[in-house]
Design goal:
Distance between the termini: 30 Å
Structural class: alpha+beta
Strand order of the largest sheet: 3-4-5
Length: 70
């Protein structure tokens, strides 16, 4: 599954989405809040039924760069 997500991320979703964790790819335009905490960064997409999405250390620089370029 991991390699499938990587292929999808690179070929289809790169312009609008960013991989933030081995389990998650987020649509950058849907992010409402980017929170920094002692456990690292988390993404809130503004839906009540969706938990905060973690940003792993592996993808942290890439995700933060995407927000800084907006």
């Amino acid at each position: 599954i991991g390699s499938c997500i990587g292929i999808i991320n690179i070929t289809i979703l790169k312009p609008v989405c960013a991989r933030c964790h081995r389990k998650f790819i987020v649509n950058i335009s849907k992010v409402r809040i980017l929170r920094a905490g002692k456990d690292g960064y988390k993404i809130n997409i503004g839906l009540d039924n969706v938990d905060l999405i973690p940003i792993s250390k592996t993808y942290e620089q890439n995700v933060l760069a995407r927000f800084n370029s907006r």
